[in-house]
Amino acid sequence: MFETLFPIAVLAALVIVTVVAMAYLPELLARKTYSKRKLAPYECGIIPETDARDRFSVKFYLIAIIFIVFDIEVVFVFPWALVFKDLGVFGLIEMGVFMLILLIGYFYIVGKGVLKWE
After folding, report:
1. How do residues 84-118 score in pLDDT, each as one tens digit?
2. 83 located within any domain
């Protein structure tokens, strides 16, 4: 058993050492010279007029989360559609429940007014 696990342990150790080295060696070896010009955002040579760290509206984040939810829905529905005939009635009921849960969630966010852009 030792002969089969030893190469995996060596590989795991090498991966860990490499990741740690790649993460921390630049921090240790790099020169640390900070200036106002280096900390400013680069705007194609144009001097920035305002702070580049602007706040986004929460609505952008809500739209992004909704997009991710429905994108994950597509990830589940597409493979199901490919093997629909093999799954039979159980697969149809299972996907129906999944779609019903998503539909309830959609009507909930519409009812809360999340999709109204004001």
Report:
1. 888 889 989 999 999 999 899 889 988 988 778 77
2. yes
Q: What is the pLDDT of residues 35-55, one digit of tens each?
A: 777 776 666 766 667 766 677
Spatial contact of 87 and 80, defined as CB atoms under 8 Å apart: yes
> How many structural domains comprise the chain?
1
pTM given for the model: 0.50
